[in-house]
Amino acid sequence: MAAAQAVGKLYIPVRALVEGATEEGSATDFGMTESDQQEIVQWIDKVAKREVGGADGFKDLDAQLTPKTYLVSNYFTAADVAVYGALHPVFSQLQPAEYYSHPALTRYFDHIQNRPSVRKSAEALEPSFPLVPIDLENAPKLERKPDPPKEKKKKPVAPADASAPAPMETAQAAKPEAAVAPAEGAKGQKKEKKEKKEKKEGGAAEGGDKGKKKGGESSKAAAAEDAGEPVPSMIDLRVGHIVEVSKHPDADSLYVEQIDFGEETGPRTVVSGLVNYIPIEQMRDKYLVGVCNLKPANMRGVKSFAMVLAATSKEGKDGGVELIQPPAGSKPGDRVYFEGPEYENAQPLSQLNPKKKVFETIQPGFTTLETREAAWINPATNSAHKIRTANGVCVAPTFVGASLS
C-alpha cells in the first residue's frame, strides 16, 4: 500500500515507532477510503521531509486540530503516530506555559502518546520516546465567548412629505369647523359611537364563534406537530463544541459541560454521566453531536439543557463508551439529520413531549455500522439511515455495532 511505502521513507526511530504501533491493524489499516489513504501519505511524507515538528509550526497545527481528535477523518491512523514521533523531541522540552498556549495540539499529543499501541511501541524503543508528563488538570480555562448577536438593520424612515400639514397645523385647521356647529358635531359623535356599539354587539356572537374557531385551529396545529408514529426526524440533533467541562460538584460520575451549539444565547449547560468512561482531558475542546430538544432536566441540582450522543460498545458499558463525532470541518450549530427523502428536509419538534416517548421509541434503532458510521435502522423495513451533516456522516471513533444514547 502507498501508506506502507511512505512509512519506509521515515527516519529512524520514528519509522520503528510507526511500524510497532501499527502492527495487527492497530492504526485502522491506514485508513478506510482512498482519499483518507492519500491524506495519510501526505502527512507521513511531511514528517519524512521534516516539515512537521518544529515549534514554528505549532500554531498552524493547533488550528488544524481544534475541531479534530485525529489528523485524518475521525480515527487513529499511522499519520498520528508519525506526527507524534516528530513532535516528541520538541514537546519533551516545553514548559507548561508553552504547551498551554497550544491547547488543541497539547490535548492531541497527550492523547496519542497514551494510546496503548503507541505506548507499547515507544517502550520497546526506550529511551527514544519516553512519556511526556503533561498537566492537563491544571490547564488554564479557555475563555470563549459566543459571537455577539447580529444587529438588526433598521428600516429607513421615509422622508416627510413637505406638502402634508404638520400635526399641529392639522389640529388647528380642524378647530374652526368644530366652532361653527358645536351642537351638531357633538350629536354626530354620539350617533357614530352608538352605531359602533350596535355593530359590535350585533356581531359579538359571530365574532366569538370565529375566535373560537381560529383558536381551535391553532391548537390543532400544535397538536398535529407530534401527531402520528414517532419518526427520527422529530429529534433535533446538532453539532456542539465543548468549551468548558468540569466534574459535577455533587456527583462523582457526572460531568457538567458548557457546550456551544451556535446559538446567540451562548453555550448550554449539559450534564452527562461519562466520568467513568471518558477521561476529562478527552472531553475538553471536543466536537460532538447533541440532542437539543429534550425537556430540560435537573441532574443532582444542575439543570441540563441537552444530551450528548454517545456510542456504547456492543459488549456493554464495560466495553467502553465513545462520543459520536461529527465530520471534519463541522461548526457549532450545524444541522445533523437522517439520510432518506422522508427525513432529510423534515423539521424537528421544538421540544419533545415526554409523554409521547419519541426519543425512547426511536433510540433502540440507533447503532454504528461496519464502517463505524452512526445510523438509525428502521425496524419496519430494516433499512439504514445514516446520521450526517452537510459535510459528511457522523461516526464512532472505534466501535462497530454500538448502541447510541
Describe this structure in words.
The structure is a single chain. This protein has 405 residues and is α+β, with helices and mostly antiparallel strands. It folds into two domains: 2-124, Glutathione S-transferase Yfyf (Class Pi), Chain A, domain 2 (Up-down Bundle), CATH 1.20.1050; 232-404, Beta Barrel (OB fold (Dihydrolipoamide Acetyltransferase, E2P)). 35% of the residues lie in helices and 15% in strands. It is built from 13 helices and 15 strands. Strands 1, 2, 3, 4, 7, 10, 11, 12, 13 and 14 form a ten-stranded antiparallel sheet that branches. It is globular and about 65 Å long. The two termini are 37 Å apart. One of its GO terms (cellular component) is methionyl glutamyl tRNA synthetase complex. This is Nucleic acid-binding protein.
Structure keywords:
405 residues, alpha+beta, OB fold (Dihydrolipoamide Acetyltransferase, E2P), 2 domains, ten-stranded antiparallel beta sheet, 13 helices, 15% strand, Tyrosine-tRNA_ligase_regulator, tRNA-bd_dom, Nucleic acid-binding protein
Would you kindly provide a brief summary of this structure?
This protein is α+β, with helices and mostly antiparallel strands and 405 residues long. It is 35% helix and 15% strand.
